[in-house]
Amino acid sequence: MAVTHVVLSDLHLGARESLLTHVDHRDEVARDPSDVMCRLGEALRETVAPMADGAPVRLVLMGDALDLGLTPFGTVSHAFLHFVDALWPDGARQVFDTDILCIPGNHDHHLWRMAQDRAFVDAIAQANEDGIPSDIPHVSRATGSPDYRCELMEAILTKRAHMHGARVRIAYPNYAVANDDASRAVVLHHGHYIDAMYRTLSRLRAWISGSDPKGETIAQIEAENGAWVDFLWSNLGSCGEWGSDADTLYETMLDAGASHDFAEALAMRVCGDLGAKMGVRGDTEIKYGVTVEQAIRGIVDLTAGRAAQSQRDGYRHVLSGDEVDDLGWYMSGPVAKQLEAELGRVPDNCSLIFGHTHKPFQDQIGADGFAKPLGVYNTGGWVLDQPTLMATQGGAAMLVDDRLGVASLRLFNDCVGGRMREVHAAGCGMRTREDAALVTALQSQVEAHRPAWDAFSAATKARILQGSAQTVERFGDRDHCAIREAVQ
Questions:
Q1: What is the largest CA-CA distance in the chain?
Q2: Which helix (H) or strand (E) holds 36?
Q3: Under 8 Å CB-to-CB from 360, ≥6 apart: which residues?
Q4: Which of 263, 377, 421, 431 fits as disulfide partner to 301, beta carbons 3.0 to 4.6 Å?
């Protein structure tokens, strides 16, 4: 048994609210690395190294690694350098391979858009007139060696001399590691297409045409909704005041009236863009007397508003009933079709690793078309987007070994009674011998390096308390300004 992959997701590097971001006493983002970042890098390298059998371990950044959705690109770039310094410190033993895999999510979907554009330009340059592609590639293969480069991350890596030659490859939106006979596989997907909010345009298409709202293939889902993901979250960080104002979305999700107002404002923005860029009038009738503007308002309020309600109730559970159904549909439908097309079969034994929800867990879920229940693992997230973490919020890293065993390294959750649970290994019911063996080996290494993990936990707890106090102070300042403006 040797660990081959370590999976991290929802780091939101550069975001003020990320626990990995160094926010100073003035509530400003500092240019030096945070204590949490440094402690994480040290403890993770010490724990993984003995489990790698001497070979570098491939790091997988499984979406929302870069907070391009809400943070200026320059700030994000500095944060990514801090991350590189933590996991590949100059002069230290190399634990992680410099061949990195990136699977973009909704906040860094722009990375896939850049890769798409580059692939299309290269294809034109290499083709004769008859061989020009008809469109950009909507998705990549899920299996094999990824063909697409993440040029932004590779450019940032050139700022560190010891990372010369490092590569960052992109697979989108799915990546799968399978054994030789394709009977077992581990599938990685950020998780946004399991979330109905990010399939809004598929739902609009289905309403107009009376067809299936979920989509049959990965390519169809991305083709219909990729632009919506871009608009909604992926690159607002480069949009000046509008991008910074969007930072209040997480806060509005905590209030029913505010989340409805946000949905209304977003719908108006979509309608305005349709008119300005495509000449589509909001009062154009599309079906049954319903106009474009009315349809967009309804769809946005249903998705953003419903997601807001889900977030407000989310402290009770890690997945709602609808989300479990959507997860089953995604795996048994689009993912199963993609695996069968590329591997020649649907694996009997399959695990899914995803993030997006910011709520780490591990469980088994049945899905049509798979002979055995899926092992389902969520990485959680690193964002403190309200005064305190919900009880279900937290962060984890996933380890995958050469036998396709999976183990969750549970890094943190909310403090209960002022005490944060110590870092530990977890599995989903020890569903296979491979999983059980990896969980046991991981827990042994965690205990062997307990001082490093305790230092990480202490730094994380301190950052959560600092962030909570600063968030409350920002809320207080806003409330004070609102009252003052109302009086005037």
A1: 72
A2: helix 35-48
A3: 318, 378, 379, 380, 394, 395, 396, 408, 410, 413
A4: 263
59 phi and psi, to 5 degrees? -90, 130
Scored b (16 or more CB within 10 A) or e, 408-425 reads bbbbbbebeeeebeebeb
Q: How many CB atoms neighbour CB 15 within 10 A?
A: 28
* pLDDT above 60: residue 91: yes
What confidence tens digit (pLDDT) does each residue in 173-218 have? 999 999 999 999 999 999 999 998 899 888 888 877 777 777 789 9
State residue 349 phi and psi, 5-degree precision: -115, 115
Q: Above pLDDT 90, what percent of the chain?
A: 57
User: For 38-42, 293-297, 391-395, which range has the lowest pLDDT when averaged over its residues?
Assistant: 293-297
Instruction: Give pTM, 2 decimals.
Output: 0.84
Provide the strand spans (E) within 162-231: 167-170, 174-178, 184-189
Q: Is 225 exposed, middle or buried (0-12, 13-18, 19+ CB in 10 A)?
A: buried
pLDDT over 70 at 294, yes or no: no
Please report which helix (H) or strand (E) contains residue 350, including its range.
Answer: strand 349-354
Beta strands (DSSP E) in 268-327 are: 285-287, 290-291
Cα 148 to chain centroid distance, Å, stands at 19
What is the DSSP annotation of 387-450? SS--TT-EEEEEEEETT--EEEEEEEE--BTTBPPPPEEE-STT-SHHHHHHHHHHHHHHHHTH
CB 64 within 8 A of CB 395: no
* Token pair belonging to 456: 């990480």
**Contact yes or no for 59/4 (Cβ under 8 A):** no
List 29's β-bridge partners, or say none. Answer: 23
The token duo for 123 is 């294809």
Cβ-in-10-Å burial (0-12, 13-18, 19+) of 277 comes to exposed
Structure tokens at 6: 């370590």
Domain ranges of the chain: 3-483
Contact assessment for residue 51 and residue 96, using Cβ atoms and an 8 Å cutoff: no
User: What backbone torsions phi and psi does residue 334 show, to the nearest 5 degrees?
Assistant: -60, -45
